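Changelog-adjacent note: as of this version, every example in the card shows the full chain rather than a window. The one below runs 129 residues end to end.
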Amino acid sequence: NGPRRNFRNVLSELVPKRLADIICRELKTDPDRNAAEAGRCEFRRVVDWLKAIPLHLVGRRAGEEFVTAGGVSLSEVNPSTMESKICPGLFLVGEVLDIDGFTGGFNLQAAWCTGRLAGEHATKKLTND
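Full-length structure tokens:
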């Protein structure tokens, strides 16, 4: 992981490789370009492009099959405070976290507990900093 990593490989750490290829093509960005030379502006263009993608719900399964999955990896969150290890000052709770579970009681309980914990520590951080 030296300083000469290309733009596509850096994007591939954030999104699936096939999507990284599409992003480079759509934004007319050289995928083999040195990522360090791209700068914040280029990555901001990627974020703006991703945020503009329209997503359409095409259906759903029966209620018994609803499961929440995905989200921010628990390894990136301090479990004692719910603060992001990557972005200090950002507290992550509930279904934003990568906790797999059936929707309803389990997810509600996780949201309440992590929300309270994060709220308490965010308050402490704001009053102590």
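Structural remarks: The first helix runs from residue 7 to 12.
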